[in-house]
Amino acid sequence: MTGKVPIVLLGSIASTALWSLFGAALSALIRNMVAAVTFAFV
What we know:
- This is EamA family transporter.
- By secondary structure, the chain is mostly helical.
- It has one helix at 5-41.
């Protein structure tokens, strides 16, 4: 039981880092899409 705690902790940290990277990439993509659509209509 005690030996699995660091692995679980490491997994949760890694998963948080991956999701934050995914979120940052997604928000940059959406921002670029909004800018492209705005530029297309202006």
